[in-house]
Design a protein that fits this description.
alpha/beta, Rossmann fold, single chain, 2 domains, binds glyoxylic acid
């Protein structure tokens, strides 16, 4: 006889991937999906939660706070977020209502780091304007430096702000570019990781793969901002009051002035970490050389955003919050490879009482503190 599996009701605010949702259905879950391009209005999420669902699958577009938890009082058992970032979920409210929420950390480290490196290259080597030259039939002839040149990555200094999972993945991948790294994090430095990276750099030097010995150093925020030819952001969004060291508008008019006028800013973390108007102004005034941005204070990017100013278009690359948008990373049902797989696994762990039913022991639960 087949074991009788528990049946749970789940509402997904988005189609996170057919195969992953099918995993839930195969376990006897009833899964309703808001299968639209746009996120559902908050009122719809509240209605669904109030209808007594056991689990809620969310994306970073859904504001999940006291109103949602109150609607699910006594019935909502888990919120499973299909993203690593969870600044849309009010952690204090989740803790007050004792609702565990999960995220998809780790599985998107490599895709996000890879993308950050690619857009760093795109802005530095002027891939946008260069392609437009060909497309618009404005490519006249080969010339040593006209109509423009880009900036190499090799031999330069990359400043990594935030040396957690994604920051480390970027450094690991970037070693082959033979650049120096300046690293800053509000948390203590991952010294073991840094030592291994230095050993790898030394090996490349001793093998004759590079003529210069490169280094990785942990420095102050100011030193990282001032010393980098590239400044790439890998911090969570922490609004004032949300953590000891908030990251909201960490990059602003004043901190942009610390950067070299030849340096580029890369943001694949969260939009509000950067004051966008200040970035546009800084590029226009030559305070920094350019920026490649994948995330914005308000998404999608407003039609009248100063970042769209045609006067800086050659120095600004803009992307639609796309860093983790690799096929495997987004859709694999394997919880060690895909966000969708990890999202449903986190939900299953809570609903089916894995790990002795203790959310504090479940690997994908974020707010473990509420259950200790
Ligand atoms: C994407 O930005 C994520 O947080 O997963």
């Amino acid at each position: 006889m087949l074991p009788v599996t528990p049946r749970f009701r789940v509402f997904a605010t988005c189609n996170i991937g057919h195969d992953a949702l099918q995993l839930l259905r195969d376990r006897g879950y009833e899964v309703e999906v808001h299968d639209e391009l746009e996120a559902p209005p908050k009122s719809l999420i509240i209605d669904k939660v109030r209808s007594g669902i056991d689990g809620l699958i969310t994306t970073l577009r859904d504001p999940i706070d006291v109103e949602v938890f109150e609607a699910g009082r006594g019935t909502l058992k888990v919120v499973a977020q299909d993203a690593v970032g969870f600044d849309n979920i009010n952690r204090a409210d989740a803790n007050r209502y004792k609702v565990p929420f999960t995220n998809t950390a780790d599985v998107l480290n490599e895709a996000t780091a890879e993308f950050a490196f690619l857009i760093l290259g795109a802005v530095a080597r002027k891939l946008g304007p260069a392609e437009n030259l060909v497309r618009d039939n404005r490519w006249g002839t080969w010339h040593p430096f006209l109509p423009f040149l880009g900036d190499e990555i090799t031999g330069k200094t990359i400043s990594v702000i935030g040396t957690g999972r994604i920051g480390q993945a970027l450094i690991k991948k970037g070693v082959g570019f033979d650049a120096h790294y300046l690293c800053y994090d509000a948390a203590p430095p991952p010294m073991d990781f840094f030592n291994k990276i230095q050993e790898t750099m030394d090996l490349r030097f001793h093998q004759g793969f590079t003529r210069e010995r490169h280094t990785i150093r942990f420095v102050s925020f100011e030193e990282a901002m001032a010393g980098g030819d590239f400044v790439t952001l890998h911090v969570p969004l922490l609004r004032p009051g949300e953590g000891a060291v908030p990251t909201w508008h960490l990059i602003n008019e004043n901190t942009l002035r610390l950067m070299k006028p030849t340096a580029y800013l890369i943001n694949t973390s969260r939009g509000p970490v950067v004051d966008e108007a200040a970035v546009a102004t800084a590029i226009k005034a030559g305070v920094i050389a350019g920026a490649a941005l994948d995330v914005f204070e308000k998404e999608p990017l407003a039609a009248d955003s100063p970042l769209r100013d045609p006067a800086i278009a050659d120095r600004v690359r803009l992307y639609p919050h796309f860093a983790s948008a690799g096929r495997t990373t987004r859709l694999s049902t394997d919880p060690d490879k895909g966000m969708a797989g990890r999202c449903v696994r986190g939900l299953i762990d809570v609903l089916e009482g894995n790990y002795g039913g203790n959310p504090a022991r479940m690997p994908y639960v974020v707010n473990k503190e509420a259950f200790r």
